[in-house]
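BACKBONE STRUCTURE TOKENS:
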Amino acid sequence: MPDQPSEASRPPEKPRGADTPPTPEPPAAAEAAGTPAANEPGPSEARTVGATPADTARPSPTQPSDGRRQRAQAAQQAGQPGSPWQHGAGAPVAKDDGMTARLRPPPPSLIRPAVLGSVLATALLSALLLSDGLAVNLLIVAVPAALAAFFAAQAAGRRLRPWTATWAVGGLALLAVPALRDAGWPTFLAVVSAFALGSLALHGSRSWPGVLIGSLGLFDSVVPGVIWGVRGIRARASGSRANWGATLRTTAVALVLLVVFGTLFASADAAFAELLGSLMPEASVGTGPWRTLLFALGLAGALAAAHAAAAPVRWDGLTVRPGKPRGRAEWALPLIVLNLLFAAFITLQLVVLFGGYDKVRDVTGLSHAEYARQGFWQLLWATLLTLLVIALALRWAPRGGTGDRTLVRSVLGPLCVLTLVVVASALRRMDLYVDEYGLTRLRISVAAMELWLGVVLILILAAGVFGARFLPRAVAVSAAAGVLAFGLLSPDGLIAEQNVQRFEDGRSTPIDIDYVKDLSADAVPALDRLPEPERSCALRIIQNDVLHDDTPWYATSWGEARAKEILEKRPVKGDGSDCYRVGREGTRDGYEPDDDGYDPY
């Protein structure tokens, strides 16, 4: 019978002559003592876990055989633990699955109590607050989820870097849009963008593949995060059952005291009862399944965020091979021809851009609406295709030396500048159309899209001068900043303000009641300036939604609260019978009422 235990059943030994062999410290005890996890980078990363400084200074006469040492080294290089003491109890073991082996770090150590507490708080708040809608409650739920990720990253030894802080702060700022605006479309864009920025904050991507995939990378951590949390709870529960019992007893006593004394105080004072009722979420048997689903989603989402923070997937490891460099003439001639075409088009556009409507009518014979409708979408597609051409040109650009770099800049730089003029021309066309027929959701959306494409072109120009290292992250930041500004500016409020202003100026046709009555509560302050019966006709539907809705405070946006205050002071008048002909005289969007023409705006 061999006199040495197998490698899987014992830790590495001390050199011969030591008093006693080392005893492996249990993972929970090591964690409580503040010992860093074995998979964290540090100065002692190359040492064998459990070895003393003397072990690393001189060889031991009782070293394992060459075969075991080679297997341990191979496991360490592949990101696998060489022995069961390298990771916390219950930690999953990474497997060498080919290409993804270099993308996935070693599994995180045992989940910390602070992480578990933050995850549980996220799940409870999700079940209690998110069932009535989205407003400030979404920001409340996001705070403990962010804390869970912070505690997990801190336990894994990750440091807070400037770009990580930028992504995190930007994501939380985007969640302020649902708290301020009632309109659903800016809220949707803000929530999706906040999710993308949060995922980037957890993964820390910087390349184009890393930024594009890393913005959705949180989905990849859902299943591993749940497994990590379950194993961590089992490991801690098996070793500290007495502590769990004390925690449950303390929680039960606190709840009993809150219920008893809260009931007494509520029955003693009506104002306190009303305040307590407004703060506490309403729960019923009918909403039980929906709240259970929200609890599960909050739990899984917070665990996924914590797992991604502790062991982020290295999406930057996905690389795209550059294209085969082309010769200077083969590469440059098509782009030079494209530049000449842009220059010829822009020369004619400058007349319109600076000449105004009189020049448009004299040169083309078209009205405002016909001119804008004729070219805006074409110019928008031209901008998008130009960005694609620039990306492909950079992929196959010559890369021989300084002369090639100068050629690339001298060809693509003018193309970007000329495309910026195309962007200005498209925005000018939209301005002419809006000035004639008013602002709508589609018009403001595509104008904002065109404006952001212009920002991207400016960033590409800056990358050509200062280097493209920060370009992927700068483009992502510009997109998130655009979504945030779009939501904070209140699109529905701007639409109502512009249409009301046109009506007050007495120009063109009356205000389009059929359109503005379907806006959100954000439009109420502007529509409240209309005279009767236009005001009541525009606000009737919004009043029914706002005043007859018993949404709690945490699911009510500031736009809804402001609209409710206005409509309670000045409710709408009449029964709506006189609204049929209001706002329907004359033309609408450039067409007569009986005209069957389709307006894409």
Residues 1-69, 74-97, 585-601 have pLDDT under 50 and may be disordered. The radius of gyration is 32 Å. DSSP finds 24 helices and no strands in the chain.
